[in-house]
Amino acid sequence: MTVSSYKKMLKQLSSKPAKLQRYLKHNKPKKRAFGKSTKKCSLCGSSRGFINKYGLRLCRRCFRDIAPKIGFKKYC
Question: Do residue 24 and residue 4 come from a single domain?
Fold first, then answer.
């Protein structure tokens, strides 16, 4: 059985509980505790250009949109 995502496979295996458990044991994505995949922008969900300083949790693109509203000024 070839599928594009593991969630489609769950639908196919829902009628076969033993095979479903074995499939999930080996193929379910791991819960990440650290690394790039754990930090995502709170607005758009992007993990690129992430700013965590001051508890912002935004990507640089969303930060540029919101910065004047939250009190940041452009420093030349």
Answer: yes
The pLDDT tens digits for 3-59 are: 567 677 788 888 888 988 998 888 877 888 988 888 999 999 999 999 999 899 999
Number of structural domains, the chain? 2
The number of beta carbons lying within 10 Å of the beta carbon of residue 53 is: 8
Quote the tokens at residue 40. 């995502």
Beta bridge partners of 58: 51
Query: What does the DSSP assignment read for 3-42?
Result: -SSHHHHHHHHTT-HHHHHHHHHHHSPPPPSSSGGG---T
**Model's pTM, two decimal places?**
0.58
- Other Cβ atoms closer than 10 A to 59: 21
- Integer Cα distance of 48 and 62 in angstroms: 11
